[in-house]
Amino acid sequence: EDKVVQSPLSLVVHEGDTVTLNCSYEVTNFRSLLWYKQEKKAPTFLFMLTSSGIEKKSGRLSSILDKKELFSILNITATQTGDSAVYLCAANLPEYGNKLVFGAGTILRVKS
Amino acid sequence: GAVVSQHPSRVICKSGTSVKIECRSLDFQATTMFWYRQFPKKSLMLMATSNEGSKATYEQGVEKDKFLINHASLTLSTLTVTSAHPEDSSFYICSASSESGGEQFFGPGTRLTVL
Question: I need a labelling partner for A27 at 20 to 30 A (CA). Which of A2, A111, B44, B71 fits?
């Protein structure tokens, strides 16, 4: 059975802290791993990772994939209260045209 | 960036009625659309995958006669919750993917409440 596991399930930090969110996966026919941020509505896309060892960055967020260890991390530096959200990772499978298997998410709360 | 819309954003209906939710890709052609369901404080659960012009593929445990999916064009898919019951109350989210990439673009979601 394909599965994606995220840790921690929830996290509370203070503004300015750096956080690392973890995502491991066990899937067949893996194509890529995606990170999303979800606030009150639907998820918004952050990163798509297909190759090992290549860091992707967007402002204070960065992410990297390790295809040997079946693992990805999402880093957020200098956290702000606006970073408070649920962060979802998902494994993209090529069957049925890019099916996504989601992890349970990490609830991040940044306190001011 | 790619935009996906959903309509309605919120619906409240009586038990036994049917509800149709539309998902549209506004600026790209979506060969594949996905329908998810999300319960409070839970992750997204894939219900079904639909390709334009063909029957939807349902995930295990999802009743295809209960959740009717139609993907009539490259920009529109609909989900109809038939004979809705209170346990069908949930947040329904669609996403769309073009042929060229693995990225899915999500709609804003529809919150269904069945009384």
Answer: B71
